[in-house]
Amino acid sequence: MTQLNPNDKIQPHWWSKTLVAIVMGLTLSYGIVAIFAWFGPGGISAPMKVQLNMWLISAIWLPILAFIYLFKSTKSAFISMALINTLIYLIFSGLWWIQ
Amino acid sequence: MKIRSDVLRTYQSLHTWTGITAGLVLFIAFYAGALTMFKPQITQWASPSSVYANNTPLVEMDTLIDQAVMQYPKATDGFIVNIDDQYSSLSWYEKGGGRGLRLDDSLTFAQRDDKGNLVTQTSDKNALGALIDKLHRTGGIPGTLGHEDIGVLIIGVACALYFIALVSGVIILLPTLVKHLLALRTHKGNKRFWLDSHNLVGVFSLPFHIIIAWTACVFAFHDPFYGGLTLVYGDQPLFESQPKSTISYNVNSLPVIQDYLDHIKVVAPNYQVRSLEFSQLSTTTPSLAIQLASEGAMKRGAVTDIIFMHPYTFNIDYSSLNKVEEGVFGPLVNSFFSLHFGNYAGNYGRWMYFILGLLGAFLFYSGNLLWLEKRREKQPQQRRSVRFMASLTIGVCLGSMLGVATTLSASKWLYLFAVPINQFYLICYYGLFFAAIGYSFYRGGAGAAITLLHALTIACLSIPLTTLIFSVMTNNATHSFDNNTIIVDVMALFFAMIFFIAAKKAKYRAFNGERNSIWALEVKDSLPKQIVLAPDFKD
């Protein structure tokens, strides 16, 4: 295995990365679910869809929680999550605006 | 597959610490969950057949209901009709009723004697099955927060940790997955063997574990999740609310039972009605809950589907059956429930989930053993944290199972004395559970493991023994038990054998195994000189 540059190695940052995943992972999950709920198949009032939406939140959140530790540091995790969050909420706003 | 070494190290730590924090509570949740697959059989085993009084033919049911409603004011509020293949039963809540688990609920069962007179018998509603189910959902952690059990929330957090442990477990296994998956190396020392079996079980039941981790997390936190969804939905209501009725009804105008059965046959042709539970019959909000069974269908409830119906107008307020107009979302959501409960494949599915649940418990137990083994030092006295964790693992895991096995076995005996049965179940379980933990810390894990495994063997053996004694000895009708729960006895016998073998192995390990181990016991001079020091295997 090739020797990694110490600067490229994953920093543990257990608690701070966990916090990023819990808070920003949750907002991201709700953002994705919001797009699916309003603009996905059936629209907002399809029967039983509210239950599926509730189930989807944790289906997105749990993998984020599990894979957040792949980020090199808390800083990179925070920046990436902030960018993805912004993107998702921009898409939601855009769809809301054109509907 | 090659994976960067820092990724492996990171996920190795994650796997270790999420596993060790969540392992014990999940062990209880898993083995108790496996037992809930046989909840009806266990409850039936534990309570006298007189309690059920399934001996009214369905054609006589309406006459029986009329008589009961005339004579017993409690029955006018509501009653339960259990429908079985041949005979059915009528009962109503003397105390309690409604949703949730209360230990002091009592039911009155009614039947007609030869002359057509009403005969009733009131007894505590047996909650053994429900308590095992609660042990599964809460890990036995008492207390409530708002309307939610604290134990459920803790299990919910444990399930999030368990999900991380699953992902990290797979990641650290990837580099050697192909080479070592099917290798069960018995000759490379105990640690290798435990590690190999831990990996084998983990990989082969991975889909089951991912489903369980996710669904259990949702079951624990659905209220906050819905709370957040109200923000997403804005002015759009999450659920349609039913319009309130002002019409008051009277129990005397209730349709006959056959009308309901005919109606259900149209609404749900492939289902069998198991029970009809009428409540609030003389109010503006009367309700009828109908339990529907179907072998092989994906069901929303643990064992049955449910329809809530207006008992006078037959208007369906809620149905958990898949409906065509709900499109793809209804069946999809129902399948998540069904995949947790394992109710979609009849008996085959029940056994499969029972085995997968027990294997899950094994996964957590072996995980803890590996944690201890990894921290082993090459000296007889092990670190304090290791001694603590060994005592805790043995005390919690074996103590919890000892509590359940003994409570089950004590049930038939408790019916001989007029005691509040459900409270005694709790005293018995918690008494033994905490006694086992105390004993484990007092004696240390190695010694306690042997004693507790022997105790478990005896507790499990006493289950079929109790059945035998009661089937031979009692001719008193109120204390006779059904004999069609032989499955419980067979399983108990099987587990007695497993625990006996485990006890033997634990004893061998304590005296003949690795000396520099948490599991070694000092050899007393009085013991025969058969001790061979095992070579110290290097990992």
Describe the fold and architecture.
The complex is a heterodimer of chains A (about 100) and B (about 550). Chain A has about 100 residues and is mainly alpha-helical. Chain A has one domain (about 15-100). Helix content of chain A is about 70%, strand content about 0%. The radius of gyration of chain A is 17 Å and the shape is elongated. Chain B is of the alpha+beta class. Chain B has a domain at about 375-525. Chain B contains 16 helices and 10 strands. In chain B, a hairpin with a 5-residue loop joins strand 3 and strand 4 (about 120-125). In chain B, helix 9 (about 205-235) crosses helix 11 (about 330-340). The longest helix of chain B has about 30 residues, at about 5-35. The model of chain B is unreliable at about 525-539 (pLDDT under 50). The chains are: A mainly alpha (about 100), B alpha+beta (about 550). The interface of A and B includes residues 30, 59 and 66 of A. Chain A: This is DUF2070 family protein. Chain A: Keywords: Membrane, Transmembrane, Transmembrane helix. Chain B: Pfam families: PepSY_TM.
Order of helices and strands of chain A: HHH
The average pLDDT value of chain A, as a whole number, equals 92
Ends distance of chain A:
52 Å
Tally of helical segments of chain A: 3
Integer tally of domains of chain A: 1
Total number of helices of chain B: 16
Query: Could you describe the largest sheet of chain A, including whether it forms a barrel?
Result: none
Largest interface: A-B, 35 and 41 residues
Radius of gyration of chain A using CA atoms only: 17 Å
Uncertain stretches of 5 or more adjacent residues of chain A:
none
Compute the CA-based radius of gyration of chain B.
Answer: 27 Å
- Give the overall shape of chain A, derived from the CA principal axes: elongated
Query: Element order, helices and strands of chain B?
Result: HHHHEEEEHEEHHHHHEEEEHHHHHH
Question: What topology, given as strand order, has the largest sheet of chain B?
Answer: 4-3-2-1-7-8-9-10
Protein name (chain A): DUF2070 family protein
Keywords (chain A): Membrane, Transmembrane, Transmembrane helix
Keywords (chain B): Membrane, Transmembrane, Transmembrane helix
Organism (chain B): Shewanella subflava
